[in-house]
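Hi L., both proteins are below.
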Amino acid sequence: TLLPKRTEKYAQNKLVQRDIEFVREEMKKVNSVDDFMKNYRLLEKVLTAYGLEDEISKRGYIKKVLTSPIGDKKSLVNLVADDRYRQMATDLLFSTGSAAAKADSTLKKIEDRLIKVGVEKQLNEIAPGVRQAINFKELAGSGKIKNTYDLIANPLLKEVIFGARNYPDILKAADVDALAKTIEKTVDVERFKDPK
């Protein structure tokens, strides 16, 4: 398919390589979550890798999510509705210090995510909705969509549902349980478990 070729070409772009190298170099210097939060450009790149670039103004909230204990079901990271925050916190593991955030495996995840998000954004400029379609296809067969709340927790999937069912935007502000009940009336979540 075209996606692997486009991804390879995008990854070889000099500007993309420069961004990846910047992230690698700067993350190696991070000794605390405060170091990470103070480096605006680094924070911006990492947030972009997780699709959270629009959240950069919420730095206090981001810090609280990143430092909350992942093993505690009642901690903020496990209560946030947006799964992207949970994934970022799980990958960076600032709740246990800074070693995991500097690990080569973590830096590779961030690099791969930056490339993936960049390719998706390029494709979305050519054909709006492609990014949501790619993410939906990946998530649909991953086993991560077990119920309606899993759909609601992922902003891209939530957008797909709203677009496909023509739900009014006002419904986005509804209580999560009320939103889940509305979605369950018109969407068979079982079908989302299998992308075929």
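That was the first. Here is the second:
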Amino acid sequence: PDPGYFSHLPGLTAQIECPLGKFSVDSRESCEVCPKGKYNDLPRMTNIGVCKECPTGTFLNHTGGSSLSNCYLCAPGRSGPDNSAITESQCLSCQAGLFQNEAGASECSECPRGFFSDASLALVCTECLEGKYTAVAAKTDCKECPAGYFETHKIKCEDCPRGWFQATGGTSACNECLAGKFSEGIRSYVCGVCPK
């Protein structure tokens, strides 16, 4: 038979074309299958080079893939950075500080500032609570603003301004000194009594 075809019985002149997922290099009694991690979506193919790689974010754990849809998507919370992956274990877990909420992703995304993820396989990031922050992306927890500071937009701590104070950490506002009291500088955690 011609390349791309095969014959069930030797000596017969009837040729059968190699189906999708298979190919034939030369005269054969059968067609060869594309290996794991690859597929062939065209008939009558004549070499292994026509087997296409499953893209990143996918894997194919059996031979003879006949279309892109045979490539399985990596699950949410995981990413597949390699082409032609042959096992689901090649879909890597998103580590703490990262997330992925879509199937078939080639990489995990960083939790943005003001958010965190404290475990692997995260589908979403958790927003920092009031009074806590993350100043950079990909954090595994939020930090508490200390006394004398207040949290803004869950991404940083600001100084309490002159005339204001904050006695405890982990807050999103400063308190104004009452009448007859003052705070001389910034970052105060108490107000003093005005001299008479």
